[in-house]
Amino acid sequence: MRDTQPELSVVVPMYDEEEVLPIFFERMHPLLDGLGCTYELLVVDDGSRDRTAALLLEAAKDWPQLRVVRLLRNSGHQAAQSAGFRRARGRYVVTIDADLQDPPEVIAEFLATVREQDVDVVYGVRSDRSSDSWPKRTTARLYYRLMCRLVGKQIPFDAADFRLVTRRVVDAVNALPDDGRVFRLVIPWLGFPSTEVRYVRAERAAGTTKYNLSKMVRLAFDSVTAFSAAPLRLATWLGLLGGAMSGLFVIGALVIKLTGRSIPGWTSTVLAVSVIGAIQLFCLGLLGEYVARLFQSSQRRPQFLVGYDSLEDHGHQDPVH
Ligand code: UDP
Ligand code: MG
């Protein structure tokens, strides 16, 4: 087991999950054993401060398929998934949260789907979000709308990080040179053939959310900056708008001055503030344009991945740049 490649790797990022961990294992263990294929359960401990690490090592003693990877410090859900992707050996890799919001029973359905259909990604898509609070649902809807526009692809709405991918996808993700990746965007962006499995998301089985506000904001910023330089260019547009407005101000201020109704000094103050403000914003935007260019070239993402080439058609091909 230790050296052979398992059929399935299940990657679970965990941060301070001591409360849910026993329930998670209780449900996961018989389920994985019953799948009828070799597997590894790869738990990435994202620098937990509670007893998660100790409980993991304890459980691994009599569960050889349980593999524990520890990150030195809390690096975030996405970074923990990256670590899992780099370490996973399976032919198929499933990512799932520890809190049992995503029912592990769906993994069997993922496997059946990928074996039946010629796809590389099976997304778990929530058919119902009623277990989430109203603010969470609204912010999530906004997030997915915006992301569809930025990625320029139809990314599956309400597909979080519960999915199965094949080795081809894992290798392609690992080959991406940029860090700070957001898996739920990068995977659709790669463009491998995919399908969806719908499921009902449950409440967190135990413990509390490990996604605090600052982590959510971080995810939103990472999502935007990984795919778009639009915010950098915002200043250019504000500058142009400010320029147009300052034009109107100048005319207005001169008219007031000429009709002799202005307070001494007012005209020159308004002119200076509006014109200089517009020039400054425009220059900032100009800088933004150059930074945006640098940013895009420094990401060094492959422009495309080839999925099939009739010249090399001996079964399934690995993607090449
Ligand atoms: N998680 C992590 N590192 C973090 C935050 C969260 O590995 O810094 C894990 C967490 O243990 C869980 C998953 O990411 O397995 C999703 O977190 P959570 O369920 O708290 O998020 P929510 O469902 O509330 O959005
Ligand atoms: Mg959760």
Automatic annotation (TrEMBL):
Instruction: Give the InterPro entries listed for this entry.
Output: Glyco_trans_2-like (IPR001173), Glycosyltransferase_2 (IPR050256), Nucleotide-diphossugar_trans (IPR029044)
Stretches that traverse the bilayer: 234-256, 268-292
Spell out the subcellular localization from the entry.
Membrane
Q: Which residues form the Glycosyltransferase 2-like domain?
A: 9-171
Q: How does it sit in the membrane?
A: Multi-pass membrane protein
Pfam families, sorted: Glycos_transf_2
The alphabetized UniProt keywords are:
Glycosyltransferase, Membrane, Transferase, Transmembrane, Transmembrane helix
The record, for CDD domains, names: DPM1_like_bac
Q: Does the keyword ATP-binding apply?
A: no
Q: Which PANTHER family match?
A: PROPHAGE BACTOPRENOL GLUCOSYL TRANSFERASE HOMOLOG, UNDECAPRENYL-PHOSPHATE 4-DEOXY-4-FORMAMIDO-L-ARABINOSE TRANSFERASE-RELATED
Which family does this protein fall into? Answer: Belongs to the glycosyltransferase 2 family.
UniProt-recorded name of the protein: Glycosyltransferase family 2 protein
Give the source species. Answer: Kribbella hippodromi
